[in-house]
Amino acid sequence: MVTYPEPKLYIDGAWRTTGEGLPIVDPATEAVIGQVPVASAADLDDALAAATVGFEAWRRTPPRDRAALIRSAATLLRSRQDEIAQAITLEHGKPFAQARAEVIRGAEFFEWDAGEAMRTYGRVIPSGPGVKHVVHHQPIGPVAAFSPWNFPMSQPARKVAGALASGCSIILKAAEETPAGAMHIVQAFHDVGLPPGVLNLVFGVPADISQYLIVSDVIRLVAFTGSTSVGRHLTGLAADHMTPVLMELGGHAPVIVCEDTDVDAAAASSAVRAMRNTGQVCTSPTRFFVHEDVYDQFLDGITRRCASTVVGAGMERGVEMGPLANDRRLATVTDLVADACGTGGALATGGHRIGETGYFYEPTVLADVSDDARIMREEP
Questions:
Q1: Are residues 205 and 279 in the same domain?
Q2: Which family does it belong to (predicted)?
Q3: Which entry of 91, 282, 306, 379 is annotated as an active-site residue?
Q4: Of the residues 187, 216, 248, which one is the last residue of a structural domain?
Q5: Angstrom distance (rounded) from CA 313 to CA 184
Q6: Structural domain includes residue 1
Q7: Are residues 13 and 75 in the same domain?
């Protein structure tokens, strides 16, 4: 029996609930599997205060000790990989094997950054006679980090690992649709003894939380992964307060297929890569520019491989592609395909929702798509 953890906030070293919640939906069944708590202004004030105190303690912790604690948390995450992967599959829909690979990838981020914690080297710069400049790197301060829903564990891991390795405290707002991965990260650090206030986790209404945290004088860095439009908005909020930002925004990855390549291998690998995580990756190959001499061969190969993709619920054996992550994605993909066909594109395969329950959509290949089609400019 696969169970889903109860989502909670984590502030100042303790879990807490709130009186208001948002539904968490299993995209394979559309069943509500939990409620994510909505942080109030008082909760966010508590998180800011905790991050302030936590930073002062953590910045004085020797890099070797920081690295050891981070590695201990990574070891715990590896030992819990099946439990975490099951929760990710329930909330996100991706196949269990992909969810487990994501957990391992997240643990690797922590292990890598634990090593980097030991390598915050400075520099000595020669100058005039009797003068030399010395550069020391110092942790910038409390970080407000925002992670997306497409990788519920590895994306929060990137934010948390870098901040903790650098000696910063962090307030993480993870995705409300997929909170379990971030919760497991926090639990691992709690279990290995991370001091209170160093790592805080909040959920709620995204616009409200970003507005509240980013404008706070406590926050010294904003880190965000998500769409370009939201990233531009958050950058504007931060710029008004001269707060630095780290932005990892959307992608619309083109693939150029030359006439001298192994066409069949390129078609097969492109199809597999495009359908990984149901295509919901900023690096998913989405647009293919194919030399005319091999166009028909490539189109046939990628169409056949996509059409053979096994689609189903993520916990089912042999499934290669799960549902789209939420109803918004289903509506967006449906609209993009309709627009492409309406502007001269041709469906080589797919193009329709599968069934009436769950956010399943056929693996889809569009041929001869016009440059005017939205799908040529918008990340699907």
A1: no
A2: Belongs to the aldehyde dehydrogenase family.
A3: 282
A4: 248
A5: 22
A6: no
A7: yes
pTM of the model: 0.95
Are 372 and 343 spatial neighbours (Cβ–Cβ below 8 Å)? Answer: yes
pLDDT higher than 90, residue 217: yes
pLDDT tens digit string along 291-335?
A: 999 999 999 999 999 999 999 999 999 999 999 999 999 999 999
CB 156 within 8 A of CB 103: no
The packing angle between helices 63-79 and 81-92, to 10°, is: 70
Does residue 3 lie within any of the structural domains? Answer: no
- Residues 257, 221: one domain? no
If you average pLDDT over every residue of the chain, what do you get? Answer: 96
Q: Are residues 70 and 173 in the same domain?
A: yes
Question: In which band, very low, low, confident or very high, does the pLDDT at 212 lie, cut at 50, 70 and 90?
Answer: very high
**Does the residue 259 lie in any domain?**
yes
Q: What percent of the chain has pLDDT over 90?
A: 96
CA–chain centroid gap for 309, Å, is: 24
Q: Of 83, 108, 116, 248, which residue is the catalytic one?
A: 248
> Active site includes 168?
no
Token pair 């993870």 is found at 174
Residues 71 and 134 in one domain: yes
- Spatial CA neighbour of 143 closest among 246, 8, 13, 230: 246
In tens, the pLDDT along 83-107 reads 999 999 999 999 999 999 999 999 9
Q: How confident is the model at residue 1 (pLDDT cuts 50, 70, 90)?
A: low
Q: According to the model, what pLDDT value does residue 48 have?
A: 98
Contacts of 367 (CB under 8 A, 6+ apart): 299, 345, 346, 347, 348
Residue 282 is a catalytic residue? yes
The angle, 0 to 180 degrees and rounded to 10, between the axes of the packed helices 154-166 and 63-79 is 160
Domain boundary among 214, 248, 282: 248
